[in-house]
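Course assignment 3, question 2. Fill in each field.
Student: A.L.
Task: Predict the tertiary structure for the chain below.
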Amino acid sequence: MSRVAYLDDLRGKGIHATYYDPEGQRYGLPTYPYHWAPDGLLTMRQLRSRGLRPGGQDIAAQILWRHRSQRRVAYLYRADLSKPKRQATPAQLAAIAKALRARRTCSICGTEKDYCIPLSTGECNDCASGHGR
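Answer field:
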């Protein structure tokens, strides 16, 4: 798997970076510290920002780091094997628009608002305050 030259140089000087395991012997997958993933490996969020998706490929590597005494993980995918994100069909877009319209329609007064009706009250803010009735 890909190696990070700077981290390898540190290893040569006797300094070992936590979570640097490019062969995957310690953690089962090639593992890199936070901010040290090699070029060509992207997280799911990075793929999406570039209009890509994993496309069925297996996880290529992982990033491990500690946050508030918990070990966190982010999986990495190969950018060269990624595929373009799928586009929603017109029928899917129509279904989404219908669902969002239903979330904005008050069940009491039946008017469509420019915000989603709160689930806690099930009615628009006007009806909840007594002004819509």
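Instructor remarks: Residues 5-84 form one domain. The two ends are 66 Å apart (CA to CA).
Grade: pending
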